[in-house]
Amino acid sequence: MIRVLLVDDQPLVRSGFRALIDLEDDIEVVAEAADGREALALAREHLPDIALVDIQMPVLDGIETTRRIAADPSLTGLHVVILTNYGMDEYVLEALRAGAAGFLVKDIQPEDFLHSIRVAARGDALLAPSITRRLIDRYVTQPLTASGTDLEELTPREREAVALVARGLSNDQIAARMVISPATAKTHVNRAMTKLHVRDRAQLVVLAYESGLVTPTP
Predict the structure, then answer these.
(1) How far apart are CA 103 and CA 110, in angstroms?
(2) pTM of the entire structure?
(3) Strand 50-54 vs strand 27-33: parallel, antiparallel, or unpaired?
(4) Cα–Cα distance for residue pair 90/193, rounded to 1 Å
(5) Where in the chain do CATH 1.10.10.10 domains reside?
(6) Which CATH architecture has domain 2-126?
(7) 138-211: CATH topology
(8) Per residue in 38-88, pLDDT tens?
(9) According to the UniProt entry, which residues carry 4-aspartylphosphate (predicted)?
């Protein structure tokens, strides 16, 4: 069972998401919070698998909430998915750096919403092609400096796997491209994340572009 924490200051939004989740056999809402501070307390109490967090909230916003979840050793298994009205706004990159596993736009189709929860629960990044494209465009128009992470620690196959993750490929697609098994592809990606000290695939995408491992194409 996938355990979900809903975090949004609008009760109507929370009730709408809960209504969808309550229809599913493999997902359940374990708690609801109206702000980030309440979310942190409930996360520590219920230890959910997924936190759906609104990016703009009173008391503690979604970015700071994500940052504190990522820094809490008791919440290492919690994947934060940011809820936004905009798809890609000025907060996206900052939220990814803070530890968000991805983004959902609030007007998402119900079936896509439920699928996204299951994807995030598996530990995969929720970066839809449109979001990834906008993220790449951001690097083209506003290039950032490298994070200083030493990519030389990666093996050639790990570097190749990271580059493919940054292009938006899933483990199965990476496996097909590298002519290896999906399990081996997952191992390459996981070892790269460990060596580069990143929390998840979303942060791996950011690092790949910041470090210059992947060069955006306008």
Answers:
(1) 15
(2) 0.70
(3) unpaired
(4) 25
(5) 138-211
(6) 3-Layer(aba) Sandwich (3.40)
(7) Arc Repressor Mutant, subunit A (1.10.10)
(8) 999 999 999 999 999 998 898 999 999 999 998 999 998 899 998 887 655
(9) 54
Please choose, from the candidates 89, 80, 83, 133, the residue with its C-alpha nearest in 3D space to the C-alpha of residue 104.
83
Tokens of 170: 């899933």
Q: What is the pLDDT of residues 138-153, one digit of tens each?
A: 554 444 444 445 678 8
Amino acid in position 19? A
**Cα separation of 158 and 69, whole Å?**
28
* CATH 3.40.50.2300 domain position(s) in the chain: 2-126
C-alpha 70: how far from chain center? 12
Q: Which residues pair with 183 in a beta bridge?
A: none
Better pLDDT: 170 or 134:
170
